Amino acid sequence: MMDIDEVEFSDPPEFVKYVCGRLNMTKEELREEFHDACVNGHFDSPVYSTVRKLFRFHCFCTSRFRNKNKMLCITKLFEYLISGTIGFDNLRRRLKEYDYSARCSLVWTTNYFAYRCRTCGMSPSMSLCSSCFTAGNHEGHDFNKFKSHAGGACDCGDSSVMKKSGHFLTTYHQINTSRYCIDLLAYKRYLGLFNRPVLSEKF
Fold first, then answer.
1. 34 and 112 share a domain?
2. Which sequence ranges does the entry mark as zinc finger (UBR-type) (predicted)?
3. Which of 36, 95, 136, 168 could crosslink 164 through cysteines, CB 3.0-4.6 Å?
4. Strand 152-153 vs strand 107-108: parallel, antiparallel, or unpaired?
5. How many CA atoms lie within 13 A of 115 on its CB side?
6. Which contiguous run of DSSP H or E holds residue 117?
7. pLDDT average, residue stretch 14-22
8. Whole-Å CA distances, 73 to 21, 61, 167
């Protein structure tokens, strides 16, 4: 049982220390086990289960969220579990370095020179920016270069208007989509499970 209603905490570090004490582990061990659960899907682990219940019962399921200090303590605990020693702000900056989108979506204004490839395109209005066209293998294709009079956006990577042969195998998109970091995605992917009903669970 970990009922924080009965305990007052002066600051978040004291709260983290309290949680670690109840689980009989250091904060480094706490984060390591939580990290392992998120990355490898070990959702039956005691640490993951405890943190999940703590989050659900003490943040949203009762009126306890009205205590701003306890809410701050829980928020800081989650920031530590997610970001570790690098800090939450640094983690957010790291996340911005990764691009998982297969689409270019570059937007241009009037008087921009773009391309259309009728060999790769599934729509007559499909357009490519110069970078994506150059990176793609369109040699021998039926294409043209045009000057945009009304603006537009690059369709490279959009499988609804362009054949896979026209964008999925380009060097440009292979570079961007290969920058995948499972550690950084694990928490975002699995913390959503905390929102599932746990009313039948007890500490």
1. no
2. 102-186
3. 168
4. antiparallel
5. 21
6. strand 112-117
7. 89
8. 15, 17, 47
Q: Please name which of 132, 125, 120 lies closest in space to residue 156, comparing C-alpha atoms.
A: 132
Are residues 112 and 160 both part of a single domain?
Answer: yes
Instruction: Indicate the angle between helix axes 88-95 and 182-190, nearest 10 degrees.
Output: 110
CA distance 30 to 77: 11
Contact 58, 1 (CB under 8 A): no
Cα 150 to Cα 110: distance, rounded to the nearest angstrom: 5
CA 1 to chain centre: 32
Amino acid at 80: Y
Which residue range is the domain that position 87 belongs to? 4-97+182-195
**Packed helices 12-23 and 27-40: angle between N→C axes, nearest 10 degrees:** 70
pLDDT in tens, 124-174: 889 999 888 888 878 889 999 999 988 899 998 888 888 876 654 444 555
3-state secondary structure of 22: helix
Neighbour tally for 145: CB within 10 Å? 11
- Nearest-angstrom CA–CA distance, 65 and 71: 6
State whether 17 and 92 are in the same domain: yes
Mean predicted confidence (pLDDT) in 78-104 = 77
Residue 202 maps to a domain: no
Alpha carbons 139 and 127: distance in angstroms, whole number? 16
